[in-house]
Design a protein that fits this description.
The protein has 272 residues and is an alpha+beta fold. 23% of the residues lie in helices and 24% in strands.
């Protein structure tokens, strides 16, 4: 053979020493197999024993967890009930139109807007509106401040708002008082006292065009027509005064006067 082949053959039978990791604090030397020119493969032996998993235990654990999850999933859930005064924001309270096209708004259960700790819940007042009326957000920046409980608007007929005012604001009574609107004041005194909140200015002497007193459901309602185009209805229940007021410009009044009067006349508050 050539010198190159002879050199390779000598190298294939030469052993060398290599260091293995420390064992027992002493360095050990191992002599690896001589390099072989043959094509042979040997299985690799693991240095640590293979850890076997008890599949029966895993299966039992999985079965228990699956059974528990299924039992929780099928448990009957408690029925959700709205509690008045706890939910912020607008909650739809408008029904579908009746045969004449009018819808009824009823203050929803769960709607927030109470007057703080110690006050009773706000009764679910109601009124009717024609087509095109939509509820709008209420802002504390409004003239009525936090006493404005509801706003509606209709581009063709105008706007309305509902004020819910604590009787303690103008009477020395307890939290759980049950006063009537007659005890609060005469019609002219009430409309004059709330005009700045409703219209942004005091009433002039001839601004009230018409005043009517109506009895319904054991309650007294004061109703006013105020210049230029305002309709107002008010009553008292428990320890609060309730006022509904509509406002329109001249064009809106010409278009929707009949509907606006219907809104005013339909305003009702349930007794406690």
């Amino acid at each position: 053979p050539s010198p190159l082949i002879r050199r390779f053959m000598r190298a294939s039978h030469t052993t060398c020493r290599v260091a293995t990791p420390f064992t027992g604090g002493k360095r050990q030397w191992a002599y690896p197999r001589a390099i072989s020119t043959r094509d042979e493969e040997e299985p690799i032996q693991p240095t640590q024993p293979i850890q076997r998993i008890d599949c029966s235990t895993v299966d039992r654990r999985s079965a228990v967890l699956a059974s528990l999850a299924l039992s929780l999933w099928t448990l009957p859930l408690p029925r959700a009930e709205a509690v008045q005064g706890l939910t912020a924001g607008r909650i739809p309270g408008l029904t579908g139109p009746d045969k004449d096209g009018y819808s009824r708004y009823t203050r929803p259960e769960g709607k927030s807007g109470g007057h703080g700790v110690g006050w009773s819940e706000i009764p679910r007042y109601t009124f009717q509106v024609g087509p095109g009326w939509d509820e709008k957000p209420v802002s504390i920046a409004d003239l009525g401040g936090t006493e404005i409980d509801l706003r509606f608007e209709n581009a063709e007929q105008g706007s309305l708002l509902v004020v819910v005012a604590p009787v303690l604001r103008f009477m020395d009574v307890g939290y759980n008082a049950d006063v009537t609107i007659e005890e609060i004041g005469k019609p002219e005194n009430i409309i004059a006292g709330f005009a700045p909140e409703l219209y942004g200015k005091p009433l002039d002497a001839d601004d009230v065009v018409e005043t009517e007193v109506v009895q319904d459901g054991g309650l007294t309602y004061y109703q006013w027509c105020v210049k230029p185009h305002h309709l107002v209805s008010a009553t008292a229940v428990g320890n609060r005064l309730f006022i509904l007021s509509t406002t329109s410009n001249s064009r809106q009044w010409r278009r929707g006067a009949d509907d606006l009067v219907k809104i005013q006349k339909s305003f009702r508050v349930p007794r406690r």
